[in-house]
């Protein structure tokens, strides 16, 4: 009797806007990567991430909205079990799974779920944790967000994205930071997600060296400047207990959760030309640094294709036209993830997009 081999699962993580989906899309276009089932965890109700992953429509599984740390256990277990059932009945054919986490996810609970869930452990094996770090904003993000530190500390591979934008001084500071947080993981550099596929898979042999104690040591060596407890908010490493599984049991939640607010809007009517530009310029000028992430699919009045716009703090990419609308309707959808806003203020900020040009100028 042949024992079925466990399906490798790669965890693709990295802070908001670091370049995870860009890397994933590169992998999905690469024949050498094999057949991949993708699990995407959304942040924000408008469900935009799903539409931004290319080429794998029927194999992309969308998980419930919210933070992967909170929702992961039951949802991940159900999602992977369902993928397995569909594979066993021949409805889906895939060689490996990639889970793209939200940018605020702590990889600890996902790792834990894969290791100990009795439904999953016999069928899936963690191939590796791939963490994407933004070459330009990465060092600052690591200073500010414990989630970003956990993502780097647990990585088997670190992919430094956006090298095309980075200055030497940015990358030197970042590399020093990464040396302290995770001296073990090999680093790759990526421009627009282009990396050799072989370097991202078969990482499990490296994992033997990653005990909870290693991660504890690296995180302790690189505390958040403003935090007395360098481990605050991380995935339970602060409370080591006997045995591996106990030591990685999540014990607390994000230290900065109460600073991060998300809001989304769906607008059925086309947005008036100029309104979006004016709104964006005003938002960036007023609070650019706190707009951790903005994603939008927009229907601008008088234009046929939908436009995708990405923003990461004050850095916004030029709008990219999509060939087709991802859904039958032409509803614009905008997701914002911001720091130090009240929910009311962030919701109101998005409501401005429903206004006509004269109203917007008066409002902002
Ligand atoms: N210049 C440049 N831009 C990049 C690169 N990689 C990604 N980007 C851009 O960075 C923005 C965010 O990229 P995504 O791949 O969506 O980032 P993400 O980590 O999936 O974002 P979230 O899922 O929201 O956390 C997009 O506008 C990308 O086009 C790169 O190597 N160079």
From TrEMBL:
**Do you know which CDD domains this protein is assigned to?**
CobW-like (cd03112)
Q: Which UniProt keywords apply?
A: Chaperone, Hydrolase, Nucleotide-binding
- In its keyword annotation, does this UniProt entry include Nucleotide-binding? yes
**A GO cellular component entry from the record:** cytoplasm
Domain (CobW C-terminal) ranges:
260-350
GO: which molecular function terms?
hydrolase activity; nucleotide binding
Q: Spell out the reaction equation it catalyses.
A: GTP + H2O = GDP + phosphate + H(+)
Sequence similarity: Belongs to the SIMIBI class G3E GTPase family. ZNG1 subfamily.
User: In UniProt terms, what function does this protein have?
Assistant: Zinc chaperone that directly transfers zinc cofactor to target proteins, thereby activating them. Zinc is transferred from the CXCC motif in the GTPase domain to the zinc binding site in target proteins in a process requiring GTP hydrolysis.
The protein, known as: GTP-binding protein YjiA
Organism of this sequence: Thalassovita autumnalis
């Amino acid at each position: 009797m042949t024992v079925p081999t466990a399906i490798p699962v790669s965890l693709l993580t990295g802070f908001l806007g670091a370049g995870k989906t860009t890397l994933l899309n590169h992998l999905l276009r690469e024949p050498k990567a094999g057949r991949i089932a993708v699990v995407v965890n959304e942040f924000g109700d408008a469900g935009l991430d799903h539409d931004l992953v290319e080429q794998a429509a029927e194999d992309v599984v969308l998980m419930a909205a919210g933070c992967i740390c909170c929702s992961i256990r039951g949802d991940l277990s159900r999602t992977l079990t369902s993928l397995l059932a569909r594979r066993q009945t021949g409805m889906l054919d895939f060689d490996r799974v990639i889970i793209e986490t939200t940018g605020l996810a702590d990889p600890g609970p996902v790792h834990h779920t894969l290791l100990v869930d009795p439904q999953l452990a016999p069928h899936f094996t963690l191939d590796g944790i791939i963490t994407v770090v933004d070459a330009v904003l990465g060092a600052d993000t690591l200073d500010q967000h414990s989630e970003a530190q956990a993502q780097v500390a647990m990585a088997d591979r670190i992919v430094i994205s956006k090298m095309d934008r980075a200055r030497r001084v940015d990358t030197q500071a970042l590399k020093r930071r990464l040396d302290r947080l995770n001296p073990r993981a090999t680093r790759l550099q990526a421009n627009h997600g282009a990396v050799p596929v072989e370097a991202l898979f078969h990482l499990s042999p490296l994992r033997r060296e990653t005990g909870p104690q290693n991660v504890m040591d690296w995180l302790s060596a690189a505390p958040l400047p403003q935090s007395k407890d360098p481990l605050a908010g991380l995935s339970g490493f602060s409370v080591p207990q006997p045995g591996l599984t106990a030591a990685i049991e999540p014990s607390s939640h994000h230290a900065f959760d109460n600073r991060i607010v998300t809001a989304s809007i769906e607008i059925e009517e086309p947005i008036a030309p100029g309104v979006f530009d004016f709104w964006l310029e005003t938002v960036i000028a007023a609070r650019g640094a706190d707009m951790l992430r903005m994603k939008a699919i927009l229907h601008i009045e008088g234009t046929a294709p939908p436009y995708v716009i990405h923003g990461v703090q004050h850095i916004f990419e030029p709008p990219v036209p999509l060939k087709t609308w991802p859904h039958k309707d032409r509803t614009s959808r905008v997701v914002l993830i911001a720091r130090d806003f009240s929910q009311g203020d962030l919701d109101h900020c998005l409501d401005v997009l429903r206004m006509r040009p004269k109203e917007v100028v008066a409002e902002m």
